Amino acid sequence: MKMRKLIGAITVAGSVAMAVSAQAQDIKLGVVAGMSGPGTSYGIGIRQGAEMAVREINAAGGIKGRKISLVVVDDASNPAQSVTAMQRLVNDQVDLVVGGWGSSQVLANMEVAERAGLPYIVVGATNPKITTEKNKWTFRVIFTDSVQAEQIADAAVRRLGMKRIAVIHDANDYGVGNRDIFVASLKKIGLDPVAVVPYQSADKDFTAQLSRIREANPDGLAIFGTIPAAPAIMNQARDLGIKARFIGTGGLANENLMTLAPKASEGTVLTTYFHEDVDPQARAWADRYVKEFSGGSQPPRPVLAAWEYRAVKFIAVPCIESSGTDKEKLRQCIGRWKGTLFSVPGDAYFDKTGQLVQQSVLVEVGKGAFQAFKGK
Amino acid sequence: MAALHQRWWFWAATLAALLALPALAPQYVVHIANFILIYTLPVVGLGFLTGFTGRVSLAQGALFGVGAYTTALLTTKLGWAPVATLVPSVLMTIVLAVSLGGAAVRLAGLYFVMATIGIQQIVWLVLMNWIELTNGPQGVRSIPAVGLGEYSLETPQQFYFLALVAAGISYFLAKRVIGSRLGLFLRALSDDQLAASSVAVEVGRAKVTALALSAAWAGAGGFLYAHYVRFIHPDMFGLEPSVLFLVMSMFGGYRSIEGMIVATALLESATEYLRPFGEFRMIAYGMILLLGMMFFPMGILTLVRRRAGAPAAGKD
Amino acid sequence: MFDQLFIGGLATGCVYAVVGLGFTLVYRTLRMVNFAQGHVFMAGAFLGLVIAERVHLPALPLLFVVGAVAFALGMVLERLVFRRLYHNHEVFIVGSIGLGIVLMNGVRVFFPEPVPFPKVFGSEVVQIGAARFQEGYLWVVLSTLVLVVLLHAMFTYTRTGRALRAVAADAEIAATVGVDVKRAIALTFGLSFAVAAIAGVLIGPLYFVSFDMGDMVGLKAFSAAVFGGINSIPGTILGGLVIGVLENLAGGYISSAYKDLVAFVILLVMLIWRPTGLLGRETPVKV
Question: Is A328 on the interface with C (CB under 8 A)?
Answer without folding.
Answer: no
